[in-house]
Design brief:
single chain, mainly alpha, Arc Repressor Mutant, subunit A, three-stranded antiparallel sheet, 75% helix, 5% strand
Length: 183
């Protein structure tokens, strides 16, 4: 596959973003390339296009499959395996959120729950206990909210994202209205 400058720029950027998403640069590039390719790609095509070893491609494919971001496809009469995105962009984003939650948030919540079981012994521990409770409650609320995202579907998710700060404005108006109604 030949990459024009725009595609190459995107793929390289995905590589740089890979570490922020939770995987390395090469895997980020592979994911970016597979996502924007109009046809499924073989491991050899990925290797040649990104100028990386076939071994790195194989390891990257396994990692992207573990994240559930790519899927294997077969073509009739062809023994090669082809790789394509596993779903649309929303589904892939939700999978990244789920994996990040499992790898980062769940262990933190577990540690916080264990620590919050013990009663604080002094003022310093009371302060730390309260802060850990705040962190736990925030992460728990975010986890609950994000667990609802996959149930919404792409159309509702798009609408939710478009609401953006508008939700905050509506809540502010509600508080003002309820506050003035109590007077």
């Amino acid at each position: 596959m030949n990459m024009n400058s725009k595609i190459e720029s995107f793929v390289l950027h995905c590589g740089e973003m890979g570490s922020r998403w939770g995987f390395n640069r090469t895997i980020g590039q592979m994911c970016g390339l597979i996502v924007i390719s109009d046809q499924p790609l073989t491991a050899n095509q990925i290797s040649e296009t990104l100028n990386i070893s076939r071994g790195n491609v194989s390891m990257g494919i396994k990692e992207l499959q573990a994240w559930r971001l790519i899927q294997v496809q077969h073509k009739p009469g062809d023994r090669k395996e082809y790789y394509a995105p596993a779903g649309d962009i929303w589904q892939m984003a939700i999978r990244v959120f789920e994996e990040r939650r499992k790898r980062e948030v769940d262990p933190t919540l577990s540690l916080l729950r264990d620590n919050l079981l013990d009663e604080p012994a002094n003022a310093q521990e009371v302060y730390a206990h309260n802060k850990m409770r705040e962190i736990h409650d925030l992460l728990d609320a975010v986890t609950l909210w994000t667990s609802e995202l996959p149930k919404m579907g792409p159309e509702k998710l798009n609408k939710l994202m478009q609401l953006g700060s508008g939700v905050g404005k509506v809540l502010d108006m509600k508080e003002k209205f309820l506050g003035s109604a109590k007077r």
